[in-house]
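Recall from the previous chapter that SMILES is a line notation for molecules. Here it describes 2-acetamido-2-deoxy-beta-D-glucopyranose.
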Amino acid sequence: LSPASPSARSFQLDYEHNCFRKDGAPFRYISGSIHYARVPRPAWRDRLLKMYLSGLSTVQVYVPWNYHETLPGVYDFTGNRDVEAFLDLTAELGLLVILRPGPYICAEWEMAGCRPAGVDAAASPCPASVPPAYLAAVDSWLHVLLPKIRPRLYQQGGNIISVQVENEYGSYYACDYGYLRHLLGSFRALLGSEVLLFTTDSAGAQELRCGTLQGLYATVDFGPGSNVTEAFGALRRVEPKGPLVNSEYYTGWLDYWGEAHASTSAAWVARGLEDMLQLGASINMYMFHGGTNFAYWSGADYKDQYKPVTTSYDYDAPLSEAGDPTEKLFAIRTVISKFQPLPVGPMPPATPKYAYGWVALRKYADLLDVLDVLCPSGPIQSQFPLTFEALKQAYGFMVYHTQLPWDVPDPATLGAPPHSICDRGYVMLQKEYQGTLERDGQTTLHVTGRGGDTLDILLENMGRISFGANTSDFKGLLGNLSLNSRPLSNWQIYPLAIDTAVQQGWPQAALPKSSSAGRVGPAFYTGTFETPGIAWDTFVKFPGWSKGLLWINGFNLGRYWSRRGPQQTLFVPGSVLHVGRPNNITVLELEEAPPSPLLLFLDQPLYNRTLGRSTMATE
Ligand SMILES: *[C@@H]1O[C@H](CO)[C@@H](O)[C@H](O)[C@H]1NC(C)=O
Ligand SMILES: *[C@@H]1O[C@H](CO)[C@@H](O)[C@H](O)[C@H]1NC(C)=O
Ligand SMILES: *[C@@H]1O[C@H](CO)[C@@H](O)[C@H](O)[C@H]1NC(C)=O
Ligand SMILES: *[C@@H]1O[C@H](CO)[C@@H](O)[C@H](O)[C@H]1NC(C)=O
Ligand SMILES: *[C@@H]1O[C@H](CO)[C@@H](O)[C@H](O)[C@H]1NC(C)=O
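With both inputs in hand, we obtain:
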């Protein structure tokens, strides 16, 4: 690299002095991750301002492909998906940007973002292997996204200083340099020759060998538990010279349903940060603000078993899920102040939260009684079960309906092959809830009945795997459901458009269905509450409820699973609430509602309650 001309806008590597050069001057960044898709748009500016006031010069941003290309060739850059508006705000606040457009992003995001719903998953696993169909989908996406990015590059007068190619590709052991080379070519063709392109991998030798490529600057990621000398030593073996970069310094960690709430000490995070800054390294903190997996956007991991990620992505990050500064933020800010001046201006205090208190709901209807509303085009007939993917149902739920083929006077085993219930199946016989089958848990139930009795199984997609080799994570009934080992057939399959109905105001105005007496099994509950004066942020608890989803005013706030935990409350941003007219609540409870269906709105979150395995097994 030739020395940068100080007059031009430039952002380059300086191999001689082991640093970046910005406009010719030595530069290192202190950055934090924020995902616009996990933060309600009205809160973007607030979160970015607080990041700026923490002393960060830079923010690191993922672009989730499947959030924007919702179906092959169908793009959405509006509302919360307006990535350009988000980037405008970063520029307005004087922040630089490190962009991570994937195409695979992990991020504990549904399917790692790595292809639109509806692309043939079998033909296009990502990113472990790269058949032509996948590369074609990647290229057509990059041709839509990167032209929006190019004018925002630092060299073009914008604030994007670098762009990551792929993400932790070395963790897939595919070691397909041809794939990385293909991406490098596409990024260069669409972004030009000047922009700094880089890769990020964990500090293992194998990961760094397979994830790096000549022409892409290598960086590593590691948390406060790692030995800084060793981790940067590993980086030095692939990049003997140039700036030291930790692209993901873990300030906390994610939570899985059914596991303990994760937390990382502020002092420990601050100490590790100081050690790295002492070495002159550039650091991005992952996450600086985690936010929320609203609707169906949470991903899952696979380690011995399927592990879905909670709705909250608080991450124990310096800025909490609701965007409030924490003790960790101030510890980090103090460390930063030892290395560079902090911006002038006080950190805004925590925003007020409001405990709206108890809100009574009433049962509207059992789910099976409203299939005409949730699946207006009617069921698909199939002799054997079909997957969500086969029926182009991206997220949410489908009902599989059939009848018992013969009399079953004595308890018979209703079951599916292991790992074929993806991810949970709520079983109803003659519309009576019988129990739940799980992907890696209970896969059989005992039933009795008569030939012709109706059998329904509501399949729930809990989010596709975002890390590991199993990214072709098909959903629905992947195998035959059988009765005493004889496969059941003649299915009617209902893909459910629940969100479409709820967004249109259903079922608020409707009178409860007459048949809606019981409190067991999948059913809808509704209610309203008013906000006095100002629509403050709040957190809603589900006392005695089991598992389901919550919408307020048609906005899908995500999954609750009070029975399994650890998360006990859902974050409700004030921006979804209305002042001066009732706020409409819709709950889909999947297993069992409490005797009095009440919700409790609190002024603080509850993330930490884990039930033991024995309790889980009795669910
Ligand atoms: C980190 O690793 C280096 C090199 O292996 C070793 O000398 C040092 O003691 C380690 N530091 C800590 C805190 O374990
Ligand atoms: C969760 O709660 C338990 C007991 O209530 C406590 O021992 C534990 O430290 C808490 N964990 C976190 C991460 O807050
Ligand atoms: C993928 O998932 C299947 C079960 O669904 C499991 O048997 C297999 O071990 C997984 N593979 C990897 C590499 O995790
Ligand atoms: C379901 O059973 C039928 C009949 O035995 C068989 O042809 C079919 O392959 C099975 N489907 C799956 C997904 O196992
Ligand atoms: C709540 O539902 C009612 C009945 O459908 C509707 O008239 C009203 O506009 C809804 N309110 C909000 C805030 O969505």
